[in-house]
Every structure is written in C-alpha cells, then in structure tokens.
C-alpha cells in the first residue's frame, strides 16, 4: 500500500512537471508564432516597398528613354535648321553678288545714257527694265534675309528648348536617384533592425 502511494505521488509529480513543461512549450510556441507573424508582416511591407521601387525605377527608365528620344529629335531638327541656314546664307551671298553686279551694270548703263543722246529713249527703257530687275532682286534679297532671320530665331528657340529639356531631365533623374537612395537606406535600416 505504501509503495502504491509512493508510486502515485511520483506519477503526480511527473504529471505536474510535464504540465509545466507543456505550458512553457505552448508559451514558446505562441511567442514563435507572434514573431513569425511579425516577420511575415515585415516581409510583406518590404515586398510592397520593393514593388514600389521597381515601379519608380521603370517610370524613371521610361522618362529617360522618352527624354532621350525627344533630345534626339530636337538634335535632328537643329541639324536640319543649321543646314537650311547654311543654304540660306549661301543663297543670300549669291543674291548680294548678283545685286552688286546689277548695280555696276546700272552705273554703266547710266553713263551710256548720259553719253548717247541719240539712243536716249531706248536706253531709258533699258534703264527702267534693269531698275525693275534691281527692285525684284532687292525684294528677293530682303525676303532671303527675312527667312534667314526667322531660321536663326528658330534655331535659337530650339537650342533653348533643348537646354530646358536637358535640365528638366537631369532634375527628374536626380530626384529619382535621391528617391532610390532614400529607399535603399530605409530598406537597409529596416532589414538590419529586424
């Protein structure tokens, strides 16, 4: 009878010890589950931030490509305008030379008119015709000069637009770089803090 009581007491102590160990184990399990849930939440936050960073990176790449395309187009237009300006300058120089030649011809014909009274009527007609041609050439020269001034103004405007586009692109890229650097710094701090 005494041995049975001793055995029962021993079993009761063992049962109590196992219950305590089970309680500790369940407590540890609850803490582990809480920690796992917290880690899972942090992982989800990190994934969302990573997706946001990837989206911003893709937007920055798209903006960069669009800006480069626009810069290439503006560069091509600038080259075309420069070529047109050079052609206009050459045409203007040719018109100036022709105008000078016509002025010299007018001077010669005027002298001939003064010297030849017999052919005065004929020479007057020639003079009027040449003066008309001079006027037409002068008008053409003025139109060419006006066209050249307009082309020069357009070239300057395109150069200004190109500079503004480059400055805007550099500013946006700098902002994206700062955002990505801030994201990396924050993400790195959060990873190490976990």
From TrEMBL:
Any one GO CC term of the record: myosin complex
Record-level Gene Ontology MF annotations: actin binding
Polar residues compositional bias, start-end: 183-194
Chain intervals for the UniProt region annotation (Disordered): 171-194
Superkingdom of the source species: Eukaryota
Keyword Ligase annotated: no
InterPro entries: Myosin_tail, XRCC4-like_C
Keywords on record: Actin-binding, Coiled coil
Domain Myosin tail as annotated: residue spans: 9-182
Name of the featured protein: Myosin tail domain-containing protein
Protein species of origin: Cervus elaphus hippelaphus
């Amino acid at each position: 009878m005494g041995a049975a009581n001793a055995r029962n007491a021993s079993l009761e102590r063992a049962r109590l010890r196992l219950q305590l160990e089970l309680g500790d184990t369940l407590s540890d399990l609850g803490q582990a589950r809480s920690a796992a849930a917290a880690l899972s939440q942090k992982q989800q936050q990190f994934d969302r931030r990573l997706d946001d960073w990837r989206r911003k990176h893709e937007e920055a790449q798209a903006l960069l490509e669009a800006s480069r395309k626009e810069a290439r187009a503006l560069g091509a237009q600038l080259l075309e305008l420069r070529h047109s300006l050079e052609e206009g300058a050459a045409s203007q120089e040719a018109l100036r030379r022709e105008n000078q030649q016509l002025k010299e011809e007018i001077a010669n014909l005027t002298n001939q008119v003064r010297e030849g009274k017999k052919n005065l009527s004929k020479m007057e007609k020639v003079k009027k015709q040449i003066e008309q041609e001079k006027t037409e050439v002068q008008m053409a020269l003025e139109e060419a000069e006006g066209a050249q001034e307009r082309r020069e103004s357009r070239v300057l405007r395109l150069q200004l637009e190109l500079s503004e586009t480059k400055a805007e692109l550099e500013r946006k890229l700098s902002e994206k770089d700062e955002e990505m650097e801030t994201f990396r710094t924050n993400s790195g701090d959060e990873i190490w803090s976990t």
